[in-house]
Amino acid sequence: MKKYVFAIPIFFCFLACKSLPTGESRQAFGDFTITFGSCNKHDVRNRLWDDVLAANPDVWIWGGDIVYADTSNPTEIAAMYSAQREVPGYKAVLEEVPVIGTWDDHDYGLNDGGVEFVSKEGSQQVFLDFLGLEENDPRRAREGVYASHEFIRPEGKIRVLVLDTRYFRTALTPAEEKGKRYQPGTYGEGTVLGNAQWSWLEGELRNSDADFNVIVSSIQVLSSQHGFETWGNFPHEVDRLEKTIVDSGAKGVIILSGDRHISEFSSSAVDGLSFPLIDFTSSGLTHVYSSYSGEPNRYRIGEVVSKKSFGVLEFDFSTKRVHFKIVGDHGEVLGELWQQY
């Protein structure tokens, strides 16, 4: 298994599914590989685990909805996590690849839930059990499952900042427009991350010397017009995140997200950043929005993928490029993006 990393800023290009830069083989690219995904039912066959291993990853990142519990009983959630750990394909991944990640609403325990969820403390502990954390891990004694992970290779360093968009998130604003569930609330009111997590994130980015900084959010950050859960329901929080990234001076910041049962690339030119801010959404692993017929996203690059898939990021430190791929069953590349940083 590979053990390496990379950084990048300046331009991007979306490529057709099978095209590659001249003279490069798909297998040869990259010094460090991240795989990630979300929206996984433990009792539905996941045909992608062998493809995850075939991508030769250095880490697997759960983007949330690892199981579909939707219960306030942590014991029931724990039983589903135990069943997930026994899924043969996932067991094979656990034996070969480090696993980190966050939760979303269905493994949190409450659909579209946030700060109001009464069983979040117990839910947090069984989630941390699922990740295999020691009893003295700091996340055992604090609110929220956010965490920082560093991967150091001779060629460079990657920092992965896993956010918790559930534990502190305040109430959503019901939509007035037919066909939508939520709409942006009053600017300046409400929060996605809460004060403590915001302070932590600002410090992590400000003090990072990593070549790439990957932020994992269970819900989308950039896409905000679909009327479901998104950071865009708290527009001031999006502005704060972008300002935090700019002010920190952190290199090669990338956002990974899930939740939507579709996969897509979103990209935004942020004042003060020398590279576009990319939000790579990968969802879902066992079930998708198969009847998808279109929705607006002013930041979208390329086409929406509504097939079961997972995300791959291949980092090359010497050329300072990242290859983003949406990968389906049998390793089919359903969408890809190259970004120079």
Automatic annotation (TrEMBL):
<dbReference type="InterPro" id="IPR018946">
    <property type="entry name" value="PhoD-like_MPP"/>
</dbReference>
<dbReference type="InterPro" id="IPR029052">
    <property type="entry name" value="Metallo-depent_PP-like"/>
</dbReference>
<protein>
    <recommendedName>
        <fullName>PhoD-like phosphatase metallophosphatase domain-containing protein</fullName>
    </recommendedName>
</protein>
<feature type="domain" description="PhoD-like phosphatase metallophosphatase">
    <location>
        <begin position="81"/>
        <end position="264"/>
    </location>
</feature>
<dbReference type="Pfam" id="PF09423">
    <property type="entry name" value="PhoD"/>
</dbReference>
<dbReference type="InterPro" id="IPR038607">
    <property type="entry name" value="PhoD-like_sf"/>
</dbReference>
